[in-house]
Amino acid sequence: MSAYARMSAEERRAEYAKVQKTYQELKGLGLQLNMARGKPGKAQLDLVSDIFDLMQRPEDYVSDGIDVRNYGELAGLPAARRLFADILDCRPEQVFVGGCASLQLMYDTVSKAYTHGLLRSPRPWCREETVKWLCPSPGYDRHFKVTESFGFELITIPMTDEGPDMDAVEEAVKDPAVKGMWCVPKYSNPDGIIYSQETIRRIAALRPAAPDFTVMWDNAYCIHEFEGEYVPFPDILSLCAEAGNPDMVVEFASTSKITLPGAGISCFACSEANMAYLEKLLTVQIISFDKVNQQRHVLYLKDKAHTLALMRRHAAIMAPKFRCVADALEREIAPLEIASWRRPTGGYFVSLNAMPGTARRTLALCKEAGVTMTGAGATFPYGKDPQDSNIRIAPSLPPVEELEQAMAVLCTCLKLSALEKLAEG
Ligand SMILES: Cc1ncc(COP(=O)(O)O)c(C=O)c1O
């Protein structure tokens, strides 16, 4: 197969007829497959379900002398704070352990900034004329939705191989209306990029005009390698403190993809000054989060080393799925030169850039053939990809056999939409 762009119009017409035939055959299979969201597959859920065998004895309900079944410990069980501090390489006093979702803690932080202001805010953000927010893109659609829902103006920051384009970030933060930035520093969603040391250093050393500029450091994939050894990662809290910005960052993490999404535990980590301020607001809102589940996780995960051993078992399930995606793209798409993609070694996604102007059409064709993918544009602010090119592939949910079929559909649809685009001239 030669590259589509170098074919004659006649060759392309013949190829289109051939690919169209394959498409109709795949459609005829009546598939119902889903690669839309980063959900663990059933084998991963089964792997960790022995977590429910714990806590059978009365002494299992006591942690550091605290009865976990009762009210108290707003910031979470000390043992759960130690567990996350171990994983994130920060101090337990900097960790607040919440409920079952880090997204809720992120939303709540933005919401508190809006209604009450943060530690360094001159006024609540609802009293600001405009609030602007930096969104490295492609990025996580749910992040963008949070800040969009508060009426902030979302500013797209291009992603590079090393993380967000820091020249653009340093320029943007000169505007006092720019109040914050989303970051997924390790195995970014969807590119799977690990921010470089230099990018992280520049983020920690930012000099924003807004005194309450906040880096939302969503370390959702902090220990989520599916290929190779665990990659150590710097502690952003100490880097910010060393750069004179101790209160500029709030870090987030959860066990959604370590144990169970929606039934795990989550945390934020920040300076102790931020912690004292946020606790004052949180104590009005809740007496204490679910410490029974926190204790279950402490007993199950134990510490970072033990948790990393569990992550290797997840990796054994995940790696063949990512290999299946990479192999299909390499075999079917690479020779045609109609898309580019990365080969991540951790996280939950593969980010593919189709020929500009074809992502929406490709995904519509996939849907028609029974394969649901993340909507076109979702990885950009306001759901609008200016290039109509980025496609997020989430291979974790379907078993490998189904994934092979789903990838056959995706590759066929990429070919059809590229040929249609080229025919337009
Ligand atoms: C970057 C990122 N952050 C957060 C989440 C959701 O985390 P949680 O389940 O802790 O709310 C996801 C889920 O896909 C994600 O990709």
3D structure, described in words:
With 425 residues, the protein is an alpha/beta fold. The protein folds into 2 domains: 4-45 and 308-424, Aspartate Aminotransferase, domain 1 (Alpha-Beta Complex); 61-302, 3-Layer(aba) Sandwich (Aspartate Aminotransferase, domain 2). 41% of the residues lie in helices and 15% in strands. The protein has 13 helices and 15 strands. It has helices at 9-28, 42-48, 78-88, 102-115, 141-149, 166-172, 197-204, 236-242, 272-285, 291-301, 304-333, 359-368, 400-424, and strands at residues 33-35, 62-63, 66-67, 95-97, 132-137, 153-160, 163-164, 178-183, 214-218, 249-254, 266-269, 339-341, 350-354, 371-373, 390-393. It has an 8-stranded mixed sheet, sandwiched between helices. Strands 12-13-15 form a 3-stranded antiparallel sheet, covered by helices on one side. The chain has a two-stranded parallel ribbon with strand order 1-14. The chain is globular and about 75 Å long. The structure holds pyridoxal-5'-phosphate (PLP).
Would you kindly provide a brief summary of this structure?
This protein has 425 residues and is of the alpha/beta class. It contains 13 helices and 15 strands. It has 2 domains: 4-45 and 308-424, Alpha-Beta Complex (Aspartate Aminotransferase, domain 1), CATH 3.90.1150; 61-302, Aspartate Aminotransferase, domain 2, CATH 3.40.640.10.
Coarse structural class? alpha/beta
Largest sheet, spatial ordering of strands: 4-11-10-9-8-5-6-7
- Indicate the mean pLDDT: 97
Oligomer: single chain
CATH architecture grouping of the largest domain: 3-Layer(aba) Sandwich
The rough form would be described as globular
State the end-to-end distance: 21 Å
CATH class of the largest domain: Alpha Beta
Give the ordered list of helices and strands: HEHEEHEHEHEEHEHEHEEHHHEEHEEH
